[in-house]
Amino acid sequence: MLLVAVALPGCGSSDDTKTTPQLQPVKAAQGAVLDTIDALQTASRHGDGRRICNRIFTDNLARSIAASANRKCDVEVRKRLFTPDESIAVQQGIVVNGNTATAVIREQNGNVSTLHLLNLQGRWQIDRVVAQKPAQK
Hints:
Number of strands: 5
CATH topology: Nuclear Transport Factor 2, Chain: A
Shape: globular
Distance between the termini: 23 Å
Radius of gyration: 16 Å
Helix content: 25-40%
Order of helices and strands: HHHHEEEEE
Structural class: alpha+beta
Number of helices: 4
Strand content: 15-25%
């Protein structure tokens, strides 16, 4: 599955504003999606499968994981998701369209996935993770 360490372009500063383009601020919804990804990273590093299944994943995703693994979601997540030092970066911009969003992420091991998120009652939750096929060599 995935662990996430969000890498934001343009963090830091430069004294030479003539050669450094000014970045547009991250929109509030995109920032909230990043917060969800960061919460996943934190819960993963702490081994908190219950938080991931109950707060970060939608109920539908948690049920799907439990059904496919034939055990509780938090047990499956603890078995498959936790690596304290692994990280994943947001590879492409976060696209928000109303109450849905996507973010393409790259794991430290090179795996790339698209996260599909839903805004449910003012909180972004991961609803689906779609692994992308590896590039042909």
